[in-house]
Design brief:
Strand content: 25-35%
Strand order of the largest sheet: 5-2-1-6-7
Distance between the termini: 31 Å
Number of helices: 4
Shape: globular
Order of helices and strands: EHEEEHEHEHE
Number of strands: 7
Helix content: 25-40%
Structural class: alpha/beta
Length: about 130
């Protein structure tokens, strides 16, 4: 059993990584970082590489000892996350949500909604931390 974090190098991804690392430590479970595709203005569609992830983990107060990276450049982020949580037998999935307007808070994004509804394990959704930005 593991804790899976949906990650991209964004404020939402960093918030999810912080929360996922804390959950993995408290559960004494491996942390699996599912680095999903995102659009980079210089590179186009890409994923965070292991060096970027290790730098993010080093910035945490306490990173879990057992961390694995799963990456996919597939634009279907929802399908990728669902595959990872099944393959890793996840006990928890952590996703980051983007801050939205007052009206926008009533709706999850399409990918988040799909993952929350289809996930076989609980999903912890965290919002970006503007204080840490």
């Amino acid at each position: 059993m593991s804790v899976v974090v949906a990650y991209s190098p964004s404020e939402q991804g960093r918030a999810a990584l912080r929360a996922g690392a804390a959950q993995a430590r408290s559960r004494r479970a491996p942390l699996v970082v599912a680095s999903h595709s995102f659009i980079d203005s210089g590179k186009g569609r890409t994923t965070a590489d292991e060096d970027e992830l290790r730098a993010e983990l080093a910035a945490l107060d306490e990173a879990p000892a057992d961390v694995r990276l799963r990456a996919s450049a597939d634009p279907d982020v929802g399908a990728f996350l669902l595959q990872v949580i099944e393959a890793e037998q996840a006990e928890l999935l952590v996703i980051g949500l983007r801050g939205k307007s007052r009206i926008g808070k009533l709706h999850l994004g399409a990918t988040a909604r799909r993952v929350v509804l289809a996930s076989p394990c609980p999903v912890l959704a965290v919002k970006e931390d503007h204080a840490a930005a």
